[in-house]
User: Fold this.
Amino acid sequence: MGYLKDLGALYLAGNYQRFPVAFVRGQGSRLWDEEGQEYLDFCAGIAVCALGHCPEEVVKAVREQTERLLHVSNLYWTEPQARLAQKLVEHSFGDKVFFCNSGAEAVEAALKLARRYAYLNHSPEKTRIVALKNSFHGRTYGALTATGQPAYWEGFEPLVPDFVHIPANDRKALREVLGEKVCALILEPIQGEGGVVPLEQAFLEEARRLCDRFKALLILDEIQTGVGRTGRLWAYEHFGIEPDIMCLAKGLGGGLPLGAMVAREEVMAALTPGSHASTFGGNPVACAAGLAVLKRVLSEGFLEEVRLRGASLARKLEDLAREFPGRVRGVRGQGLLLGLEVEKGLAPEIVKRLFARRILATAPKPEVVRFSPPLTVAYREIDALAQALREILADL
Ligand SMILES: *Cc1c(COP(=O)(O)O)cnc(C)c1O
Assistant:
């Protein structure tokens, strides 16, 4: 009983605060622990398992690829990598793709590209990178520096020079900070780890306009919002603007480690041979998984279903906000990336009580419970979550 979590606690770094469970199997929105208990998953590996656990087409694509070719390095071309890049380009603003293995690496690549593009095309002094307070971009040094939450910096300074943070949705601050020295502005369309905080239309439009005016690149970190999570393939589609660079990871590999940076051709041209690289980036198995994920997400009616399921969950959360006006303050987010704003400090307790009922969710902030289920979550699973939340809120 509990053997795996004891084993893990003995030998693994203590950098994660884990729930007291070890999972051994998953299917769709369901997981099973080492004792055979079933869980309902509204976390989905932090928005990674876009098609749920072990989706048939991803498992099949991975199995077939593992029997053919595991790795050759980027000294050579491979079919899954080239085909996945083609798919990403055909269905986005971008022209060229750089593959890596995680979100932080995609952000790191974007920050490096932005500085190098400015260096080659404008001036070596154009190095400033603007990011938002309360943002999250990953844990490597560049990504960590872009992350506008000082709690994540503690004990790791000095950080990378020439980053500035402004409050999200503050157009005045945006106008004050954008200038000739700025090479890039990096934004999440919805701040995920920041507590499901959406950017406003007017703010994104102003960001696009000011970036154009000062020849700064607009980087969208769609690591959490991309690949159908918000009900469109990319969250920027809701806003009618396009970035110069987009960072992807999480849902892209459907459970395999896969990151990507997509850019316009003229921008990506700054990455000349030898300027940046990744040994594992674009691994054939991970890319085969990515192809299977995109094929399904782009299939007829899929994204419309994500919007319908998201609307159903949002409606049920809004009902709870009406039923428990003191404890629940509101509902934020889009598609199947939703946050329930609750009384401060209550979110971890709600997540704990959901866990006791074997339902998985996350609390990125003490006042926000986040739901990021598989995009294929069933309506009756949404009902089950809402009913559990109702009972928990009534009980608190
Ligand atoms: C998760 C996340 C990252 C970091 O991704 P890793 O794969 O953990 O490095 C970066 N940006 C956003 C918006 C994320 O949600």
About this structure: The radius of gyration is 21 Å. The chain has 13 helices and 17 strands. The chain has two domains: 3-54+301-395, 57-297. The first helix runs from residue 3 to 11.
